[in-house]
Amino acid sequence: MAGPYTGIDMAHYDKEERRNQQSSGYSVNADSGDSGGICAYLLTGISILLIICTFPFSLLFCIKVVQEYERAVIFRLGRLLLGGAKGPGIFFIVPCIDTYCKIDLRTVSFDVPPQEILSKDSVTVAVDAVVYYRISNATISVTNVEDYGRSTRLLAATTLRNVLGTKNLSEILSERESISHVMQASLDEGTDPWGVKVERVEIKDVRLPIQLQRAMAAEAEASREARAKLIAAEGEQKASRALREASEVLSDSPAALQLRYLQTLNSIAAEKNSTIVFPIPLELFKGFSKRMKE
Ligand SMILES: *[C@@H]1O[C@H](CO)[C@@H](O)[C@H](O)[C@H]1NC(C)=O
Ligand SMILES: *[C@@H]1O[C@H](CO)[C@@H](O)[C@H](O)[C@H]1NC(C)=O
Ligand SMILES: *[C@@H]1O[C@H](CO)[C@@H](O)[C@H](O)[C@H]1NC(C)=O
Fold it and tell me: Domain 108-212's class?
């Protein structure tokens, strides 16, 4: 798509050019009155005459329709028409002197192809992402960039590399959410002059080299094993301490041991009421024998 200038009036062009450079970006030109001089008026007159002469049939070429989600950016003799993008619905063009292009305002998504990235701590990871964007201003998406879709795609790939290049591996793996937000903000800033609004960026997948995966798995397993051993050792320590205390208590009074035997017998009997073979310690009868003697 050509720029907004007809290029006939060079002095005017220069003035415009300077103004645009100062404001760094395209601004919609409001004075379409002096856009082509007498030649333009002549062409417009002839076109309108043609429309009137061929009246019912000319409507076929004059009336255009865009869908609810579309806008039409119209150029009359190369100049952007006043009033911005037309639509949705019916709009009129003058054949021969008008050209227009339809812009879809719906959200578009694309995959950023997997990028091999060297993280801050020198690990190569392959990362891919999904980007969702839509056109926020149809006019400047036509006038400021040749192909907004392709440009956004390329910018997304480089932004992904730039953002992830500043992170180390553990950050890449653990902070996907914040990386997505940083990327969305920085991509949106870059596409702003093209009338493109980046709505969402999602990091899809982070793939590590196979060797690193194995090493990490081994590391995780080893640390888990170490923790398990520690827990087992602690348990044993506690158990042995408790046993020592128990034995101290039992040794304090000999009758306690006998009671313990009886208790054990009782608990076994409650659970399994079949025949029980239980070694009866002789100490049990000492008490009885003492009493018999008395
Ligand atoms: C699109 O951008 C142009 C130039 O910056 C501006 O004049 C126009 O108002 C914008 N249109 C919308 C719908 O924001
Ligand atoms: C990754 O970077 C963060 C902050 O920049 C730091 O706190 C962390 O220790 C680093 N991790 C590694 C494994 O270098
Ligand atoms: C043995 O225990 C079962 C339940 O556990 C009970 O139904 C049964 O009556 C018991 N038998 C005797 C002889 O107590």
Answer: alpha beta
